[in-house]
Amino acid sequence: RKEVEQDPGPFNVPEGATVAFNCTYSNSASQSFFWYRQDCRKEPKLLMSVYSSGNEDGRFTAQLNRASQYISLLIRDSKLSDSATYLCVVTLWGSTLGRLYFGRGTQLTVWP
Amino acid sequence: DAGVIQSPRHEVTEMGQEVTLRCKPISGHNSLFWYRQTMMRGLELLIYFNNNVPIDDSGMPEDRFSAKMPNASFSTLKIQPSEPRDSAVYFCASSSGTSGGPSYEQYFGPGTRLTVT
């Protein structure tokens, strides 16, 4: 069983729409949580960390539900430039040296 | 500042040939990770190093794969002999630790797109 599961999509939404992605993680000892973004034929890059209390960065809101072991990412007022694959990432408690566990990603396409 | 540098960016080779992928991590970073990405399996961790020492190579598919990190500024991933199923994008990433623990932000290189025919 993979550490992180995501709906692969694709999600196709018009500009201005609100879209939400969820991911679930299997290990209750998961410690830290992130969303990475990967543009087509590019490398993954950190989008934002996910904190227990939830956090916002402009149009992006990330939330964590430890009891249900899921993480969400909400994008408001979608832009064409938001089209990418969004990777859910966790670390495990006691996992040293910065190892990350990646989901397979959710593909988003924003159309004009 | 230069990011993670990988070479070559593209490699096309015939089955049975040896392939060597190269990575230069960000200066000062002490952890280095090799990943493989395919449509079918997503992003898979192959091996990672800390302070040039291999920590976990359980993701290396088989003995045909080997990785080295002879110094803090250079790492190689070698496939010998290569097979068509090795075709994928191979990413190298690096991260830095602090006295308080590891940094979980990994900086990825642009990747090497490998095609084995």
Short structural summary:
The complex is a heterodimer of chains A (112) and B (117). Chain A has strands spanning 4-6, 11-14, 19-25, 30-38, 44-50, 55-57, 60-65, 70-75, 84-92, 101-102, 106-111.
Structural class of chain B: mainly beta
Total helices of chain B: the number is 0
Structural class of chain A: mainly beta
Major sheet description of chain B: 7 strands, mixed
Q: How much is the radius of gyration of chain B in Å? A: 14 Å
Count of DSSP E strands of chain A? Answer: 11
Give the proportion of residues in helices of chain A.
under 10%
Oligomeric form = heterodimer
Secondary-structure element order of chain A, as H and E?
EEEEEEEEEEE
* Low-confidence residue ranges of chain B: none
Relative helix content of chain B: under 10%
Termini separation of chain A comes to 38 Å
Biggest interface pair, residues each?
A: A-B, 18 and 22 residues
Shape category of chain A? globular
Number of helices of chain A: 0
Mean pLDDT of chain B: 92
What is the first-to-last residue Cα distance of chain B? 36 Å
Give the radius of gyration of chain A. 14 Å
Instruction: Report strand % of chain A.
Output: over 45%
Short key terms for the protein model shown above:
heterodimer, A: 112 residues, mainly beta, six-stranded mixed sheet, five-stranded antiparallel sheet, B: 117 residues, four-stranded antiparallel sheet, 13 strands, 0% helix
Please outline the helices and strands.
The complex is a heterodimer of chains A (112) and B (117).
Chain A: E1 4-6, E2 11-14, E3 19-25, E4 30-38, E5 44-50, E6 55-57, E7 60-65, E8 70-75, E9 84-92, E10 101-102, E11 106-111
Parallel strand pairs in A: 2-11
Antiparallel strand pairs in A: 1-3, 3-8, 4-5, 4-9, 6-7, 7-8, 9-10, 9-11
Chain B: E1 5-7, E2 10-13, E3 19-24, E4 31-38, E5 42-50, E6 53-56, E7 65-71, E8 74-79, E9 88-95, E10 97-98, E11 101-102, E12 107-108, E13 112-116
Parallel strand pairs in B: 2-13
Antiparallel strand pairs in B: 1-3, 3-8, 4-5, 4-9, 5-6, 7-8, 9-12, 9-13, 10-11
